[in-house]
Design a protein that fits this description.
By secondary structure, this protein is of the alpha/beta class. It folds into two domains: 161 residues, Medium-chain alcohol dehydrogenases, catalytic domain (Quinone Oxidoreductase, Chain A, domain 1), CATH 3.90.180.10; 143 residues, Quinone Oxidoreductase, Chain A, domain 1 (Alpha-Beta Complex), CATH 3.90.180. It contains twelve helices and 15 strands. Strands 3, 4, 5, 6, 7, 14 and 15 form a seven-stranded mixed beta sheet that branches. It has a six-stranded parallel beta sheet with strand order 10-9-8-11-12-13, sandwiched between helices. It has a two-stranded antiparallel sheet with strand order 1-2. It is globular. The mean pLDDT is 95. InterPro entries: ADH-like_C (IPR013149), ADH-like_N (IPR013154), ER (IPR020843), GroES-like_sf (IPR011032), NAD(P)-bd_dom_sf (IPR036291), Quin_OxRdtase/zeta-crystal_CS (IPR002364), Zn-ADH-like_protein (IPR051397). This is NADPH:quinone oxidoreductase family protein.
Length: 336
């Protein structure tokens, strides 16, 4: 089969290599073999290629952490009983999920754990379904499980035109919040407006702290969704409301901030961490419940992954590099 492999860590354009005779992965106990129909590109893919991710598969490996695929086979039943019986999967079923590395999504075939596979919603095509899982699950857990966002509150979303940021804008609106979107550049500002943000702030042209204070009458944002870190986090501490919540989702800006906890004390705000991947092992029932909620929201048209690029298989190195460099809007999806 065709697959993109990482023989050594480095920049995606430099090290990713396409092989045409990679062996098809063999599903182990409790695993599904799927034919990849669409693979969404995520920032963790860049970290994997660079050797900077918390998981480091043995070299060479195939990256790609999110897919929509067609079930073609499955391994034997797992030796250990599961808390939740597997779905009644059948060949041809359309599924989404996070592949089991080192057999990632940038290949013709990949593996999924049966217990962590989800039915793709009929209302989304393959590219949209592939992009629904990680970004929208992350945004949902951040806004609802961690920050307990309430209707009528003000939500500040950084990198609002990106993959996970655009999901947070959609889910914030669906929850009845007033959404302030922070983006970098006029094109991304237009995207955030199209998503329905109530206020869009281009950080390259104006100070988002001043804008948030002005539009909230000095109160500030009740919830901050921050996948950027660095200056985005620091500025957020200056415009978060009394008893507000800042959810730290990632550090796409490259700088991990060191918060002044005395400031959180005197201003009475909370700093919350969100690592969505932990819920898959610690509370898989919650992940499955959120998937049902996301499918229902998608069926109503309240959420739809912002797929801005449907790319051929040959474009994988360029797509991963673009996501790594932060030059993309929405989601890039590879169609093998």
């Amino acid at each position: 089969m065709r697959a993109w492999q990482v023989p050594e860590p480095g920049e995606p354009r430099a090290v990713l290599r396409q092989v045409g005779d990679a062996p098809r992965p063999v599903p182990g106990p409790g695993q599904l073999l799927v034919r990849v129909r669409a693979a969404a590109v995520n920032f963790p893919d860049a970290l994997l290629v660079r050797g900077q991710y918390q998981v480091r598969p043995p070299l060479p490996f195939t990256p790609g952490v999110e897919l929509c695929g067609e079930l073609v086979g499955r391994g034997p039943a797992p030796a250990e009983p599961r808390d939740r019986p597997d779905e009644e999967w059948r060949p041809g079923d359309r599924v989404i999920g996070t592949p089991v590395l080192p057999h990632g999504a940038f290949a013709e075939y990949a593996l999924l754990d049966a217990a962590a596979a989800f039915r793709a919603p009929d209302c989304l095509d393959d590219a949209e379904a592939a992009a629904l899982h990680i970004g929208h699950q992350t945004a949902w857990f951040a806004l609802h499980r961690r920050a307990a966002l309430r209707p009528g509150e003000t939500l500040l979303v950084h990198a609002a035109a990106g993959g996970v940021g655009s999901a947070a804008v959609q889910l914030g609106r669906a929850a009845g919040a007033r959404v302030i979107a922070v983006v970098g550049g006029a094109a991304k500002a237009a995207t955030a407006r199209a998503l329905g943000a109530d206020l869009v702030v281009d950080r390259t042209a104006e100070d988002f702290v001043t804008a948030v204070r002005a539009t909230t009458g000095g109160r500030g944002a009740d919830v901050v969704f921050d996948p950027v870190g660095g200056a985005a986090f620091t500025g957020s501490t200056r415009c978060v409301a009394f008893e507000g919540r800042i959810v730290v989702v990632g550090f796409a800006g490259g700088e991990i901030p060191a918060p002044a906890l005395n400031h959180a004390l005197v201003k009475n705000y909370a700093i919350l961490g969100l690592h969505w991947g932990l819920y898959q092992s610690r509370d898989p029932g919650a992940v499955r419940a959120v998937h049902r909620e996301l499918c229902a929201l998608a069926a109503k048209g309240a959420v739809r992954p912002l797929v801005t690029g449907r790319l051929p298989f040959e474009a994988v190195p360029d797509a991963v590099q673009r996501v790594a460099d932060g030059t993309t809007t929405g989601r890039l999806v590879v169609l093998p």
